[in-house]
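Sharing a chain and its predicted structure for anyone who wants a worked example. Both blocks are below, sequence first, tokens second.
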Amino acid sequence: MKVSRRAFLASTAITAGGAFAISFRMHDPWPLAKLFAATTDPFDLWIQIQSDGKTILTVEKCEMGQGVFTGLPMILAEEAELDWNTVTVQQSLESSGTGGSGSTSGSYLPLRRAGAVVREAMIGAAAHEWSVPKEGCVAQQSRVTHRASGRSLAYCDLVSTARRLPLPDIEHVPLKNPSDFKLIGHLTPALDIPGKVQGTACFGFDVRLPGMVFAIIARCPVFGGKAVSYDSSKALAVPGVLQVFEIEPRGFRIYSAGGVVVVAQSTWAALEGRRALTIKWDYGPHRNESSDALSEDLRRALTSEGKIIRDDGKVDRAFELGAERLEAIYEFPFLAHAAMEPMNATILLRKDKCEVWCPSQSPDWVRSAIAKELAMKESQVLVHTTFMGGGFGRRYIADYPTEAAQIARHVNGPVQLVWSREDDMTHDFYRPASYHRLRGAVDHSGNIVAWSHHIASTSIRAQWDPPETVKPESAEIGGAVHIPYSPPAIRVSYTPVESAVPRGWWRSVEHSFNGFAVECFIDELAVAAKQDPYLFRKANFLEAARQSTKSDGPTDDGHTDCNRLIAVLDLAAQRAGWGSPMRKNQGRGIACGTAYGYVAQVAEVTLRDGRIKVDRVVAAVDCGQVVNPNGVRQQIEGGIIFGLSAVLKGQITISQGQVEQTNFSGYELIRMPESPAIEVHLIENHFEPSGIGEAGVPLIGPAIANAVFAATGKRLRKLPLRPDKLAT
């Protein structure tokens, strides 16, 4: 699901209704071209310079509020030297998976190269027109100017010539010096905001087709259960209800829950029809699962050795030699994604093709899942990716598109599958529940000499990978195996725990719990070493920097540029006024890390009337080259608020095999009066950009928990944080 830069391909220029068009792909070629060969403009034209002076840029990633609808076109326009005021952006019909905060980092170089091809092609066309060396020409604001004579031509006037000339070699096309950037790194209003404010932007629920009907599914409330029988007579008597039928569950890698479908002329009629159904359920083998029993299993798993993932140095011996030794257990519940727009999909099945309108993070997965369900070729399935009201990883999974395909078999014409808020809350793919046992030791000088981290969790990968190939720890250990600190002895181990509760990728995935455990325990070690938590971290990073010669940022093997990490740590502490006095019942906490970039956060809290009030959060961020500062700040702010809800309120509990929280009344979110003042400070440089959509989430929890300790002298190690459970 990750995009490889080396997989980037470019084709020649393509005739598209009199436009100069560059076609390139960010992933493997896909055979839909044959299906749409008769159309005027092939769907995979990513840059089209029209003869009327306008430019159409195509976005291959999915916009869900993270800003790619603006940020990625900015990269193209920057290198292509386009007049931003003439740019129109459209969503690709060949969109690919969007997640892991990888859109900008994975697209940056390919998009720059594609834009540079356009710029150089236009310069070459102008030089050809004027019979002058291209080195004497310069492109700017969709125009090419001959320096010596002052002659100038607009890109639109060069289209016909550019289409006849060979394109520059995309692998060797010259790129602009970052010091010359006019768009990248500059504040740019988001292009999708006007439509969203005016109500003209199309989200999944906004799709309306002639003759469209609406479908609601009654799913078994217990995970893994299914219908034995049902009586549809009362449902069919509801005005507007058209059909009632059953769809079967789908298993491995799809996880459609199945159920009884009500199709009606309106959403309300479908909901009323579902309420009128009488269904006898087979609750299956998981009806007795509960959060209490799972907690016992997780705690018991921590007493096992587990699978050793990393074992450097003589850990047991190092613990024996430590001057101060600590142990702590951290507990994390299941969490729902709780996107503002519940899951939905609109589908139109014809004899030889299928058309889908879907707010999905993985249109390629939607395409393959629907093709599999309908026994069609992928080239017969066309997916329109709409805007979406939040993704957070939930919309990566293709269960609801599969359900739509199952329903389409029974309906003649377009049908929109609608999930209610209750459906969304009780049939999510939840962040895994996990327990963490950390042990650490420091010497007489306050240096970390031993570190042990044992993770027990309900594995994500165990439910997606074939049993013979599964590595259940693969989506659980990030941020734990390679920590930015450098103890000479470190051991990390993992134990999976069985559960019927579906698990999925929740915003920042494993970093959301590993980041909390690591950064809270570092704080505990700092106290044991009788050192200031900020200075304790900085001293460890300085030591790690002395030991390392690398300076190229986080990599897959865990190497970190500690100087960049120190820079964000210092900046956050400085801007937060670290060390300045605070009032009674107030505290200040700090956390930092390298998940999706270099980030540090300082939280200031007040404990009042048995509640934690977060007053202020200061974040410092080094994400490499910033494309749109507006977008970076908004994503960090949004990630902090998203994380606050989880840290202070969020938990999904299971009783008798089903979710107890069915709406926001039971699964509360942070409200505006509870939101802190947030400051985001960016460090500017020209390193390759890292992801930012998830970077704000992992550190807000430990920053708050550490601030609570600063205020009270007591630790909270279980989420959500509850002051009445303060540990001694």
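Comments welcome. Confidence is low (pLDDT under 50) at residues 1-16, 26-44, 550-557.
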